Amino acid sequence: MTALEAAKLFRQTLGHYPTGVCVIAARDDQGRAEGMTVGTFSSVSLEPPLVGFLPSKISTSWPQIERVGRFCANVLSSEQGWLCQRFASQIDDKFDGVAYSLSPGGQPILADAVAWIDCTIYSVHEAGDHLFVLGEVDAHDAKHGALPLLFFRGQYGRFAPLPSLAGGAA
Question: How many domains does the chain have?
Answer without folding.
Answer: 1
